[in-house]
Amino acid sequence: MSGMDPLPPLETLLAAERGEDLPLPEEIAGLYGPLRFPRPANRPYVFGNFVATLDGVTSLSAPDLPGGGPISGSNRHDRMIMGLLRSVADAVIVGAGTLRSVPAHLWTAEYIYPPLADSYRRLRAASGSPRPPWNVIVTARGELSPEHPVFRSGEVRAMVVTTPEGGKRVRGCGLPSSVVIEEAGSGGSVDARKILSVVGRHSGGGRFLVEGGPRLMGDFFAERCLDDLFLTIAPQVAGRDGSVDRPGFVAGKLFAPGNPLWGTLAGVKRGGSFLFLRYEFSTPTAS
Question: Comparing C-alpha atoms, which of 234, 230, 201 is closest to residue 46?
């Protein structure tokens, strides 16, 4: 990425986050400002990250336009924040659909924003977690590609969380022996609380980042397991005509009008025409 213009600092419009300042290296702090997280005593702190268009689209659902890159235009501020959040997470949790949509991806800070790779590594070391976060793949049916770099690269610790039925398929698909396979559900679904429990046994708890997709995020909201949501608003209108599914960041669950979930705006940053929002949600005090 040599020859690229320096990334300008984000403009902070609101900073009302609770918790303690994390030990951000100077280069990251200069771009983002302070980052604060509470530390619940009896459970992990769970936060999500998504990018959406002005009309709420989070995926174009096109095979040649995977992931959030087409939504954000591969915006550098968005990728820098993704790297920052991955740096402070003990585990990054994604669904199997998200895994399939980006067949070369690793859920590490260095992968998503290489210019700050050294700073991300120093942040992890200062936080007491020098290794990259666990890459946790959630699949009810156990339909995975065993050749995905998450499982084969050796750069991340990989875990698959599935159902007993899915576990049979996962164990027979040829994954490396280093991949941890855990069962945390029954029937056709995996419970968000059980995901957190099994991931916590291996990672030691701490902070868990959920990056989707929308159905997995819906499960975490439905079980009141999400403390924070980091939401990038990209200044494009994608549109919907009913010919293809273009979901928001929650799918498969219905909350309003019977049981709407209200967040508290805790942070607003601006980078050009992009907004970077942070919402806090009330969650039970015990896991």
Answer: 230
